[in-house]
Amino acid sequence: LSCVVYVLLVQQNWYCYGKAVAEQAAWEKAAARGVDLVVVNPVLVVGPLLQPTVNASAAHILKYLDGSAKKYANAVQAYVDVRDVAAAHVRVFEAPGASGRHLCAERVLHREDVVHILAKLFPEYPVPTR
């Protein structure tokens, strides 16, 4: 994890940095106490929200609908539905042989694919076209 933490610090992505440092601390505490730790690491989580406010994941999509993003980046992002993340947690909890880190992702989309999907679902919104 130390390489990941370095990259996150250089990019000043404090949200991801905080998650990486917390996981690193969990692994250290688990090892010191002899606890068998299993970690589920979801990528960008989308789906129904529990709270009435916009979270970081929803903001990633909202910027393409509210007009604040005039262009989309030439980049890709991995996505997973929150219900699949919950199911993954249950599966590793119930699997006696589960160990280590588990990446939880459903698909990887280019930003162009994301805006095309949004434009089809919400044609009344100012979704960027380039």
What class would the helix/strand composition place it in? alpha/beta
For the largest beta-sheet, the strand count, sense and barrel status come to: 3 strands, mixed
Q: Reading side by side through the largest sheet, how are the strands ordered?
A: 2-3-5
**Oligomer state of the chains in this structure:** single chain
Strand content: 15-25%
Describe this entry's structure for a reader.
- This protein has 130 residues and is an alpha/beta fold.
- The chain is 47% helix and 18% strand.
- The chain contains five helices and five strands.
- The chain has helices at residues 2-11, 14-33, 56-62, 82-94, 111-121, and strands spanning 38-42, 44-46, 76-81, 100-104, 107-110.
- The strands form two sheets. A three-stranded mixed β-sheet has the order 2-3-5. Strands 1-4 form a two-stranded parallel ribbon.
- The longest helix is centred in the first third of the chain and has 20 residues, at 14-33.
- The radius of gyration is 18 Å and the shape is elongated.
- The N and C termini lie far apart (36 Å).
Short recap of the structure:
By secondary structure, the protein is α/β, with parallel strands linked by helices. The protein has five helices and five strands.
Task: Name some characteristics of this structure.
single chain; 130 residues; alpha/beta; three-stranded mixed beta sheet; two-stranded parallel ribbon; 5 strands; 18% strand
Secondary structure layout plus pairing:
Layout: H1 2-11, H2 14-33, E1 38-42, E2 44-46, H3 56-62, E3 76-81, H4 82-94, E4 100-104, E5 107-110, H5 111-121
Parallel strand pairs: 1-4, 2-3
Antiparallel strand pairs: 3-5
Helix pairs in contact: 1-2
